[in-house]
Amino acid sequence: MSPSFIRGSGISAATVHPRSHARRRGRPPQGEDERLCTSHDQESPPTHPSCHGLGSTNESSSPHLGAKPVTDARIAAHGIQFSYGRGALELNVPQFAPGAGIHHIIGLNGSGKSTLLKLLSGVLSPHRGEILFAGHSITEPSTFRQFCRDSGYLWQNFRLRGGVPTRTYLEYRAWLHGIESAQIREVALRALAAVELSEAAEKAIGRLSGGMQRRVGIAAETLHLPGLLLLDEPSSGLDYHARDLLYVALERLVSADSTIITVAHEPDELSRYDSTVHVMANGTLATRETFRAGEITSEVLRELTEGAQR
Q1: How far apart are CA 198 and CA 18, in angstroms?
Q2: Highest mean pLDDT: which of 15-24, 41-50, 177-186, 235-244?
């Protein structure tokens, strides 16, 4: 049964179980809240020269693609193939297993970056291959439940609609992420404070500006301190101050040895931390390179993306 704050709130709560949702194949998700394990009715509320970094690797042939071996990676993709249909780009990722730390996925428009994040998040199911979380397939019900509780996913076109209070929406998301009932209210309010939206706690979620909604999304996907965080252009629509709030949240997760995977484009954002950059080209991860904070420039990004096309 749904917790009391959901009953009568206008939120349609979904059970945290893979078989309680349609596994979408062959087409982009249509709903506003794309993550299967946190689905709800939104109408209600809702290679490159090594002199630039520490080393370069051919990603498609490397047995270990992250900072840790595959067996230690929280999330891993093995033999992934996916396409939206005839004539569409086919995504082909033999292996991707990023370790703890920040990983950026870059590439030209249409190279498959967002689709890869959707596959890693469970929004889309691969036609071939499998996604593993802590060494187990996310198609296993118990693994999927734990995956939902220990991960977060903020998609590119995050939008919220409806008249449900912002606080209630975050309480709902806290519940879906496995927060104990007695702590849900406190966790939700603390998450609002972290993105400086305490004054909007009782305001209808649909009446918030786009930037404020993006901040709510950041709060919702980091309030449970996930071990895995997937972010698709997370700073999109954020002003400079809101971006600083995002960076504080990311620093907290990095300190906790979380794995953070982002799709990003801006050199300032990419070079803020030590990170591993994975270059996507024509539906596959072509190369990867590790950088120190401050090393990534526009020229470096251009060389990486253009080199991956050759």
Answers
A1: 33
A2: 177-186
With 0-12 CB in 10 A as exposed, 13-18 as middle and 19+ as buried, what is 282? middle
Q: How far apart are CA 287 and CA 105, in angstroms?
A: 10
pLDDT of 264 above 60: yes
Mean pLDDT of 4-22: 40
Contact 115, 90 (CB under 8 A): no
Query: Beta strands 90-96 and 75-83: pairing type?
Result: antiparallel
Question: 3-class DSSP state for residue 124?
Answer: strand
- Across residues 23-49, what is the average pLDDT? 32
Token pair for residue 72?
């230690």
Q: Please tell me the least confidently modeled range out of 14-18, 81-85, 105-109, 280-284.
A: 14-18
pLDDT at 34 over 50: no
Closest CA to 209 of 175, 247, 174, 238: 238
Pick the CATH number of 55-309 from 1.10.1040.10, 3.40.50.300, 2.40.340.10, 3.40.190.10: 3.40.50.300
Contact 138, 18 (CB under 8 A): yes
- List, in sequence order, the alpha helices (H) in 151-209: 166-176, 184-194
Whether residue 250 contacts residue 102, with contact meaning beta carbons closer than 8 Å, is answered with yes
Cβ neighbours of residue 302 closer than 8 Å, sequence gap 6 or more: none
- Counting Cβ atoms within 10 Å, is residue 11 exposed (0-12), middle (13-18) or buried (19+)? buried
Under 8 Å CB-to-CB from 164, ≥6 apart: which residues? Answer: 9, 10, 11, 44, 45, 46, 204, 205
Q: Dihedral through CA 214, CA 173, CA 104, CA 243, nearest 10?
A: 30
CA–CA separation, 232 and 34 (whole Å): 12
Kindly report the pTM of this predicted structure. Answer: 0.79
